[in-house]
Specification:
- Pfam families: Fapy_DNA_glyco, H2TH.
- GO terms for molecular function: 8-oxo-7,8-dihydroguanine DNA N-glycosylase activity; damaged DNA binding; DNA-(apurinic or apyrimidinic site) endonuclease activity; lyase activity; zinc ion binding.
- Belongs to the FPG family.
- This is Formamidopyrimidine-DNA glycosylase.
- By secondary structure, the protein is an alpha+beta fold.
- The protein has 2 domains: 114 residues, MutM-like, N-terminal (N-terminal domain of MutM-like DNA repair proteins); 118 residues, Helicase, Ruva Protein, domain 3, CATH 1.10.8.50.
- A 4-stranded antiparallel beta sheet has the order 1-6-7-5, with helices on one face. Strands 2-3-4-8 form a 4-stranded antiparallel beta sheet, with helices on one face.
- α1 runs parallel beside α6, α3 crosses α6 and α5 packs across α6.
- The two termini are 34 Å apart.
- The relative contact order is 0.15.
- The model has no long low-confidence stretch (mean pLDDT 92).
- It binds a DNA duplex through α1 and α5.
Amino acid sequence: MPELPDLEIFAVNLEKRFKNKTLEKLEVIVPKRLNVSETELKEALEGHQLQAVLREGKTMQLHFGGGNVLGLHLMLHGEIRLVEKDDQVKFRIIEFHFKGDNSFALTDFQKMATPTLNPEPSEVPDALSKDFTITYLKELLSKKKIQIKTLLMDQHLIRGIGNTYADEILWHTRISPFSIAKAIPEKKVKDLYQGIEEVLRKEIMQLTRAIPDSFNAEVKDFLKIHNPDLKHSPTGHEIKIDKIGGRKTYYTDEQVQYNL
DNA sequence: TAGAATGTTACAGG
DNA sequence: CCCTGTAACATTCT
């Protein structure tokens, strides 16, 4: 479900709660989702401490002692759920049992959330990483004839932005989501570049305060556009709803549409 | 109650 | 082969 800002917070909070705890037992409920055998996964992780939880694109990476990393992708509906003693959580994919009755599970009613042992490092820049540069964005846009929103959401091009924050970023920069990428003037591409970082970082700051402990809350409080409860943008313009790539898209007529 | 849901990918068509 | 757009995945919630 979540995008970059949410996952950033979840990773921090998960680390806060489970750092330095030893993984006593790993329970695999849906082995089909693994990239290695159940045995291999258990051998790699069981008995080791959780040293860090980091966000990478739309995944969280659990770093364990022994040098192994487990990537977790939540996909559309996946969640990290705390499991209380003797509690049965629905839709589990895998469950982590730490020493001292501390457990959490990766769940997904759609069974699509994916644990990956030692994921390959990606070549694609994360939206908040140093290698996501203005030069990279300019070059990328100049080559693409697709709508800008589709481009922002393509994880093979930029990692971390999804349906919600694509809308937020595009409203923030006053660019219509229907704009064709290569038609956007260079000056506006710079706004877009800055807007991506501004919107994401501000959201991370606000979520940090709002959910200091949660690793699954869905907080819509700070969204300005992509929120069905809102009728108007902060500047008083009517929010319109349309579809791009089968996905709901929120925008206003404050946003300029650039076409070829 | 039918449709939408903060995602990804296989596949079709150009 | 490259580029782009669409449908499907399974279940819950409104």
